[in-house]
Amino acid sequence: MKSILTLTAKDLRRRLASPAGLILSLTIPLAMGGMMLLAFGRMTGTGQRDVPQLRLVVVDQDESPISGIITGATQNPEAAERMHIERAASREEGERLLRDQDFAALLIIPKGFGEALLGSQQVELELVKNPAQRIMPVAAQQITEVMALYLSGAARLLGEDGLKIKQLFEGEGWQDTPALTSLVTVMRDRITSVSDLLFPPLIEVGTGGSESDEGSPGGFNFISWMYPGMIVMGLMFTGLDQMKDLLREREAGTLRRQLAAPVSARHVLIGKVLSVALVAAIAQIILVVIGSLVFRVSWGDPLALAAASGLIVLAVTGFAALLYSLVRTERQGDAFGGILTMVMAMLGGAFVPLQVMPEWLKSVSQLTVNHWCNEALRSLTSGGGWSEMAPYLGVLAGMGVVSTAAGVLLLHRRHMRGAL
Amino acid sequence: MRLGSLPLVLSIARQDLRLTLRDRSSIFWVFIAPFIWVFLFGTLTRPSDPTKTRIGLTVLQQETTPMAERLVEGLRAENFDVKTIPPGGSVPTGDEAPARTLTIPAGFQESIAQRRKVQLDLREGKNANPEGTFAVQVALHKASVRLLADEALGGFSPGDDTVRVRASYAGNARIVPSGYYQTIPGNLVMFVLIAAVTYGASQIATERKNGILRRLSAAPLRKSELIAGKLLGRVAVALVQVGVFLLIGLTIFRISWGTSPAGLVLLLAAYLLSAAAIGLLGGTLFASPDAASGVGIVVVLVMAAMGGCWWPAEVMPRWLQTAAYIFPTGWAMNGLHELLSWGGGLREVGLHCAVLALFALGAGALAAHRLKPVA
Fold it and tell me: Do residues B270 and B187 both lie within one domain?
């Protein structure tokens, strides 16, 4: 035992003396996570997604006070934060802006819009969506439809009196004080009769959070979901990069020379694999700390996190040992390791939630180490505890023990054959 | 470049192509991995326009009054796949848990009749599609306003709406970049650059380290001709890669590459040149092949994400969308959207080609300046 610890400590010192490989292994997932955070996290400090600003071009061919309500929608500070409206003089200019400046959609308010609305005649708003965008044009359509609904409601509320208001907009009828007073009274009564239902709407929609996150406001937290996948990918890269050292030692002949020392070959290999596990554990600690400080991930119960981390490190080390017991050269290890890491990350749900995968892919996903590692960590970041994590830990322990034991045995056999 | 040295230049390029195609791992990364990515991400991000597809919504009705039923009907009219759970029922959990659950509380109708505020509870399931949830929120708002207006004004059905919205897509092609139309262009742009920067850069670094570049410099070639040969080698690899992408896109994934073959060829040619030049530059910046490919992959991943290869650029903050144009990936993706989504032609991608050619010139000139055959 003492000899194994001595070998492990020596190996660990050597590995940490040249940390370039470790740094690079961690940089790739951190760079990917950082980009996702920039794109979707919006640095809100909570990891919650923020809706991107909707950019709309409006061509007001009507130029009436009614169309002015639409074009001036962003005078409301809350609306201005969510939406940017750019006015264009003509349809051609609007289409040019839509294409060249990546607006989501072009809204055209036709001539006679206000007059038709006040006259309760059907009228159409035209929305031209940007075909090079997928999400925001759809949002623009939905918001325009809501606006159309409100305007239809307003037209209905005005009824035939809309024409009188239209005359007032045109500057007529201001001298007829009795008629004006009567109109104001009628309007006030109508608005009062519906105000308790509609201003503001009596029905409110509360978003209580995710099903798995009872009582926690805001629901699904993208960063907390995404970061575990990145961590596991980083650990896989780390484990493989560190295990590659075995083949480098074979090239240098240092492994064979160690056979002359008064330690068994098995002890040497166990020491090597243990030192890889320790580097992976250091990587795990670094990634967890970065997750807390930079990505604001909440890891829940520290003991549960420690248990999950330990088993993830075991599983990752086992995977790396098994792979390097099967490949012959460093180049093969690089190739197969890189390929398997990326494919398993993808299938294991690092980039895409399992829920959106077809059933057959979900089954394939369960064959990957990443799946169980990701789910164990995600159960913690979504507020779960030991009970939610237990099934994942059980599988990880099994996978880790079997793959590490198999890897060490196979490596030992190769070593004794002189192939290592 | 002298005409007489052309065979030598081509020979260097041919040798580079041969070396890359002989390497089994490069075969995977160049020709197999991109299509696994395309297939998986393309399948998982297939078109999900909520105005065209039916989004799942489970409604837990704690009362079945006429008003609650009208609200449910209003949601059905918004094209949702609505499943209702009657009073006393419970929402499935675990794997059967719905993506979104709306609860209509007991006393809903009574509250409205007495003009008291009433709150509907919308819960998003774990990992629910956010676009779908946004659509549900908007539709729920519409359905509840319509219900209240109906109550206040006495009849307010969609057929009576004074204002309607006619929506259409601009451009000639009108193909929205979702599913394979996002993943194929995105992966083409990313994997061409990955191959150029990782294999290209590490190959140059390896050849310098092994003294191959020094030996090549003894050939009757100018330095610019050596650079041209190396550049052509990277372009040849990328050309094969792009050819496979175009072919597989057409035959297996059945996407349209737009209506302007000339525009597409010119845009891709300009992009290949810029990717090859960046790969060459990478090889001159690092002494070790591992560092060249390791740092290269990180740089490419950042460029790909910012350029809109991973997700639609529109979801990123505005400043990040603008910053994407610092990289060739941003110009290439925008150019491909011009051709595929807008149905544009040579004129529309002229600027993109010019900027990409400038990237190629700049990176190529810098690589030529830095390239030293001796390690």
Answer: yes
Residue in chain A lying closest to B310 (CA) = A36
Contacts of residue A335 in chain B, CB cutoff 8 Å?
24-25, 28
Is the CB of residue B153 less than 8 Å away from at least one CB of chain A? yes
Nearest to B175 among A116, A123, A131 (CB): A131
Minimal Cα–Cα distance from A247 to chain B, Å? 16
Q: For tokens 């005078």, what's the residue?
A: A75
| Distance between A276 CA and the closest CA of chain B, angstroms | 20
Q: Give the phi and the psi of residue B258 in degrees, each rounded to 5.
A: 95, -175
B267-310 pLDDT, tens per residue? 999 999 999 999 989 888 887 887 888 888 889 999 999 999 98
Domain of residue B100, CATH code: 3.40.1710.10
CA-angle at B95, arms to B91 and B98, nearest 5°: 40
B175 in reach of chain A (CB within 8 A): yes
* B277 or A221: which leads in pLDDT: B277
Helix axes A265-293, A302-326, angle to 10 degrees: 130
Rounded percentage of chain A residues whose pLDDT exceeds 90: 36
For A101, the 3-state DSSP assignment is coil
All domains in chain A, ordered by first residue: 2-44+221-416 (no CATH), 54-159 (3.40.1710.10)
| Higher local confidence (pLDDT), B360 or B36 | B360
Q: Which residue of A has its CA nearest to B41?
A: A352
pLDDT computed for residue A213 by the predictor: 44
Residue carrying structure tokens 């910046």:
B285
Q: Is B177 on the interface with A (CB under 8 A)?
A: yes
Residue B218 at interface with chain A, using a CB cutoff of 8 Å = no
- Looking at the domain assignment, is residue B168 inside a domain? no
Residue bearing tokens 């609007």: A94
3-state SS, one letter per residue, for chain B:
CCHHHHHHHHHHHHHHHHHHHHCHHHHHHHHHHHHHHHHHHHHHCCCCCCCCCCEEEEEEECCCCHHHHHHHHHHHHCCEEEEEECCCCCCCCHHHCCCEEEEECCCHHHHHHCCCCEEEEEEECCCCCHHHHHHHHHHHHHHHHHHHHHHHHCCCCHHHCCEEEEEEECCCCCCCCCCHHHHHHHHHHHHHHHHHHHHHHHHHHHHHHCCHHHHHCCCCCCHHHHHHHHHHHHHHHHHHHHHHHHHHHHHCCCCCCCCCHHHHHHHHHHHHHHHHHHHHHHHHHCCCHHHHHHHHHHHHHHHHHHHCCCCCHHHCCHHHHHHHHHCHHHHHHHHHHHHHCCCCCCCCCHHHHHHHHHHHHHHHHHHHHHCCCCC
A335–B25 C-beta distance less than 8 A: yes
Range of the domain at B103: 55-160
**Mean pLDDT of all residues in B44-52:** 58
Based on the domain organization, do B191 and B255 belong to the same domain? yes
Number of domains in chain B: 2
Per the listing, tokens 């993706």 go with B333
Q: Is B358 in the same domain as B328?
A: yes
- Of B123, B129, B144, nearest to A203 by CB-CB distance is B144
Cα angle value B288/B292/B294 (rounded, 5°): 110
CB-nearest partner of A120 from B28, B128, B162: B162
Burial per residue of B94-133, b for 16 or more beta-carbon CB atoms within 10 angstroms, e otherwise: eeebbbbbbbbeeebbebbeeeeebebbbbbbbbbbbbbb
User: Is some CB atom of chain A closer than 8 A to the CB atom of B130?
Assistant: yes
